[in-house]
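For the sake of transparency, this paper describes our internal protein records without simplification. The tokens are whole numbers drawn from a learned vocabulary of local backbone shapes. One such record is reproduced below, unchanged from the form in which we store it.

. . .
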Amino acid sequence: MKTKGFTLVEILIVVVILGVLAAIVIPTFSQASTDSNLTNLRANIQTIRTQIQLYKVHHDELLPGQTTAGGNVTDAGFVATLLATDGNSDGPYITQMPVNRYIQNPAQNRSITCVNNASASAAGTEGTAWWFNAATGEFRACDSVANTQW
């Protein structure tokens, strides 16, 4: 009496075919994840830059964290002024600093480095998610050398 079923060879062929298909499809999904992170990064940068400009309009050309024109800005001062509502009911400009998905450490993925030097530029090695130059008003990602271009 013969039983119905698959032979070991047939099962192995199916497993090999599935493996080949997986090898073709998986790189496509990993590239989509990389593209998604970059799109998110660029959108967050554009949002913050827009809010910085709006802050300047509302506060006589002062940058977030400045108390006088051309004054220095601290990391905490920059974030605090974007999160606050002032006496004129302007703000908050953001509800929280956005997450930089390229920074895996939750303690650093919203952090910022503020500098007050017109000749400074983001190196990508600061160890923070974002970089702001109060002398120029420039806001960038600083999670890596490649992403400082944004």
